[in-house]
Amino acid sequence: MARKHVFISGRVQGVYFREYTRREAERLGVKGWVRNLPDGRVEAVFEGPDDVLDKIISWCHQGSPGASVTNVEVIDEATEQQFKDFRITG
Description:
Elements: E1 2-11, H1 17-28, E2 31-36, E3 42-48, H2 50-60, E4 68-77, E5 86-88
């Protein structure tokens, strides 16, 4: 298990990015959360097996159909296994 803290920049708010992220996370079995930030970015925490996290992070580079992603920052964190599912917060 691994944990990634991710910040996605670009046109990622107002384009259903969080909902599409939730759907993709559920499809892959990833746990964690996603939310909008006041500065226009989207923030997410993903927990799961390394190979699955690679898939969802790769997906974040494309995002929802209306998104235009310009940057994805990924920070490795200690796995806490505190999540039971994947949620949209904030």
